[in-house]
Design brief:
The protein has 8 helices and 8 strands. By secondary structure, the protein is an alpha/beta fold. A 6-stranded parallel β-sheet has the order 5-4-1-6-7-8, with helices on both faces. A two-stranded antiparallel ribbon has the order 2-3.
Length: 221
């Protein structure tokens, strides 16, 4: 019997790579000095967004006083430290990726991060061979999640029935983006998550159920 889903789209940060906690340590420390009234900032809004999306949000809503080039240079430095020194693979990520590859399930990585940041993580954890395609917000002009552009672009590249595709996301921005492109979404919500993922089509607390979901579909809540 064929699997229910033949294509899995993975988010990177917070799903395959345990990096979100380190981003919070690094970038929020820096931004607290650049945003006058940081106490009014909802830090959860930044999870899953591209660096361009974060800059737009910080500038328009929180009066960030920083040149865009300086902002990007800072984030490049932070990304290298996070991915090359601090981050770790999520529990069971490697075994699930391996299991899906053995079942000939097509796996796509879709991230709001720039390609060079993705390369840091792929090289360090030797994950590139698992993915048929790697797509970044760079590929859609930096317009990352929650905008649906990155998932719409992915669908165009795949040229497969939408019913064959499932996305795994850990942020409300990611769920919104995938739904905006018409995709089925499983929310990855480990115990420490503070994200509201109730709009996802299904919820998991660790990655191991992904294999069964691919084979049998999303169980009723």
């Amino acid at each position: 019997m064929p699997p229910v889903f033949s294509i899995v789209i993975w988010d990177m940060d917070g799903v395959l790579i345990d990096s979100e906690r380190y981003w919070a340590d690094e970038d929020f420390f820096f931004l607290r000095r650049a945003v006058h009234d940081w106490e009014q900032v909802d830090e959860a809004l930044f999870v899953g967004r591209s660096i361009d999306g974060m800059y737009e949000l910080l500038t328009n809503q929180y009066q960030l006083q920083m040149d865009y080039q300086e902002y990007c240079e800072h984030y490049d430095q932070v990304a290298k430290r996070v991915y090359m020194e601090k981050a770790a693979l999520m529990p069971h990520a490697y075994e699930v990726l391996t299991s899906l590859k053995e079942r000939h399930i097509q796996q796509i990585l879709v991230s709001s991060s720039p390609h060079k940041w993705i390369e840091f993580a792929m090289d360090r954890f030797r994950l590139k061979t698992f993915f048929d395609t790697i797509i970044s917000a760079d590929d859609v002009g930096g317009r990352g999640k929650p905008h649906p552009d990155i998932y719409q672009y992915t669908r165009e590249q795949l040229n497969q029935p939408i019913s064959a595709i499932i996305a795994i996301e850990d942020s409300s921005a990611g769920v919104e983006a995938a739904h905006g492109a018409g995709l089925t979404v499983v929310g990855f919500q480990p115990e420490e998550s503070t994200q509201d993922l109730q709009q996802a089509d299904g919820l998991i607390q660790d990655l191991r159920p992904v294999v069964r979901i691919v084979e049998c579909g999303i169980p009723d809540r």
